[in-house]
From TrEMBL:
The chain crosses the membrane at residues 87-105, 111-130, 142-162. It comes from Priestia flexa. InterPro entries: DUF1129. This is DUF1129 family protein. Coiled coil: none annotated. The lineage of its organism: Bacteria, Bacillati, Bacillota, Bacilli, Bacillales. Keywords: Membrane, Transmembrane, Transmembrane helix. Pfam families: DUF1129 (PF06570).
């Protein structure tokens, strides 16, 4: 299913089932899984939910009282993302970092420092985001938003001070 189809079908779900399905998808997306298999599982779960609702069943009726545990079991059985996917992801971060760095005016000595620091810190923030998303799936989203905001702020401050430090050293 395409993203648009999934979004359209989600509108048919009850509020609670939609929320649980979105938490399920969030947990899957933050796991190191093969993209194709992850999407197949997402589509299957959505189909089961839609069919279950026709019979008067909810998410917990279909998938158990502990949706997080159920999702973890699924994740353990699915193939992990390939080395090619991981390299593509890392290169996309580097490319985006490069575009951001070169879109601003710099002198030659600070470009290398900026590119290195920005790539490392943005990678750390993205990895932290995925880990937090997985940790807080099926839990309070306010706490995860606060922690993620704190991580981004700390990364920004760290970037600023490390940049000053490295430019003053060179």
């Amino acid at each position: 299913m395409t993203y648009q189809e999934v979004e359209r079908l989600k509108l048919r779900l009850t509020k609670y089932n939609k929320q649980q399905f979105e938490e399920f998808c969030l947990y899957l997306s933050s796991s190191d899984l093969d993209t194709e298999k992850r999407n197949e599982i997402r589509d299957e779960i959505l189909d089961h939910l839609l069919e279950g609702e026709k019979q008067g069943k909810g998410f917990q009726d279909l998938f158990g009282q502990n949706p997080r545990e159920y999702t973890q079991q699924i994740v353990e059985q699915l193939p992990k993302s390939s080395l090619k996917e991981k390299i593509t992801f890392a290169l996309s971060i580097l490319l985006i970092s490069t575009i951001i760095i070169f879109s601003r005016s710099h002198n030659d000595s600070s470009v290398f420092v900026d590119l290195t620091l920005f790539s490392i810190l943005s990678s750390a923030v993205i990895i932290g985001f995925f880990k937090l998303t997985k940790r807080f799936a099926f839990k309070s989203s306010i706490m995860s938003i606060l922690i993620l905001t704190l991580i981004i702020q700390v990364a920004g401050v760290l970037y600023y001070f490390l940049k000053i430090l490295f430019i003053n050293i060179s």
